[in-house]
What does this fold into?
Amino acid sequence: MFKKAKKETIVIDLGGSIVFPNLEGFNLPYLKKLKQFLLKQSNNYRFILVIGGGKVCRFYQDEAKKVGIKSNDSLDWIGIKTTELNAEFLKHFFNISSEVITGPRQKASKEANILISSGWYPGNSTDFIAFKLALIHGTKRVIIATNVPYIYDKDVNKDKTAKKIEKLSWKEYFSLIKGKSWQAGMSLPIDPKAANLGEKEKLEVFLLEGNNLANLKKAINSESFKGTVIKDYQKD
It folds into this structure.
């Protein structure tokens, strides 16, 4: 009797800006398509989804600041709890039996085709958690699905002259975010702490617009896709 081939694990850092784009609620049309997409792709791959907080996270953190809550840890915990709620919603929406992953020591099902993780603890973004989960589960490939199609040389939301970047080494990425340090609610393509881990472990990261599922499929299959690739190009 032939032994079934082990599926490649792919970690997807699913931005809260896609899942919960505004305070009107979840992006249900997208989530319905994503559910069917992942179920189909799970015939060939095993997925771990790390869910961000989205607008609901920003809302709670902004309200906390208004009442004088300034501690980074406090703001982080508020954000983490919104990711837990988002993750719990998606667990039931996707009909997943495995518990939401809420920490690095939690044992995760080896049989489940789709696992979901929330944020874990203060001082870390979902980028860092996605990278840690990739290492825990024996893969070097992480997809960051966000609301922008590329990493740019400037803040594309503030400067329309920003140019897209299709390939970056980790060293080049650090030059883009020079002087940045972790703060609760910060907005960077990949936070500095996660980037340090990515460089150290030689992770290959694909950043792309998550709403484009056809493009996401190409990235999953290691085909040419629209987005930014970060890896150790110096070794190529």
Notes: The beta strands are 8-14, 45-51, 114-117, 141-146, 151-152, 164-165, 167-168, 204-209, 228-230.
